Amino acid sequence: MTFSQKQLQTLCSIAHAAGQEIMAVYGQDGAVWQKDDTSPLTEADLRADAVIRKGLEAAFPGVFVLSEESRSAGDAAADAFFLVDPLDGTKEFLKRNGEFTVNIALVQQGVPIAGVVFAPALGELYYAALGLGGWVQIADSAPQTLQVAAWQPTEPMRVIGSRSHGGDKLAAWLATLSCQHSFVAAGSSLKFCRIAQGQADIYPRFGPTSQWDTAAAHCVLVAAGGAVLDLAGSPLQYGLQRPLLNPEFVAVGDNVVLAVGIMSKTQCEKQT
Question: d(Cα 178, Cα 184) in Å, to the nearest integer?
């Protein structure tokens, strides 16, 4: 299916509505449960999921929806489907640091062709569709076109990573970098968006992520000129028949950075 600017704006409106539900809970001590995998689930997750599902079913009838919190009934073998994380960064939400997002992506034949990432506490909206472009809108300002930055080898490589995950593998990878680098932590799918804005160069991910964690921001980054690739150099793929967990990957703005990233990961594996 092709995707229009009007449809992309519809996704943005749905994400905004979900963000309003999240913010209605944000300042309160809402209910928190623990899932089977020990990750937290909040009232905000469920309220945002309900709003997104209702909006997608009304605007895109018949398109399968796979969310972290629910899934459509019926055929799960569709070539085109929505991947949704109604509240990405639940730990950041509980810490009240603002770095959580609403993620909505349309996947077609394994590729995210449209994506919206909305950070309601920060007032940041990122949206993109293949063939249309990618944009960021901060609060009520005019949308700005997203463009990754070219990495300058004379400048420190700007590495971005998880605020809640990482551990020994990330530390070992950073230790193998032969170039100067800086490191900054960020929550949720905002790490991809910072690269799309030109504010970071590379995001190496060695811990587990699920398809709904990455698909929307993957589309945003690709539209800005970047890439999200597994450690063999192939683009990350999505699908209802694929494992829910992604392989380890590297998200980059500049392909030169990718070469450094994969080389460093290989060195890291040899040392461990």
Answer: 18
**pLDDT at residue 272 greater than cutoff 50:** no
Of 166-170, 219-223, 268-272, the one with minimum mean pLDDT is 268-272
pLDDT of 267 reads 42
Distances in Å between the alpha carbon of 118 and those of 122, 153, 196? Answer: 9, 32, 14
List 126's β-bridge partners, or say none: 117, 136
Asked if residues 68 and 104 have their Cβ atoms less than 8 Å apart, the reply is no
What pTM, to 2 d.p., does this model score? 0.90
Rounded CA separation 110/124 (Å):
27
Q: From the CB of residue 210, how many other CB atoms can be counted at a distance below 10 Å?
A: 15
Residue 173, H or E segment? helix 167-176
Going 219 to 220 to 222 to 223, the CA torsion angle's sign is: positive
Per 3-state DSSP, what percentage of the chain is helix, strand, and coil (rounded to 5)? 35, 30, 40
Q: How many CB atoms lie within 10 A of CB 245?
A: 10
Please provide residue 33's backbone torsions phi and psi, each rounded to the nearest 5 degrees: -115, 170
Give the C-alpha separation, 122 to 204, whole Å: 24
**100 touches 87 (CB < 8 A):** yes
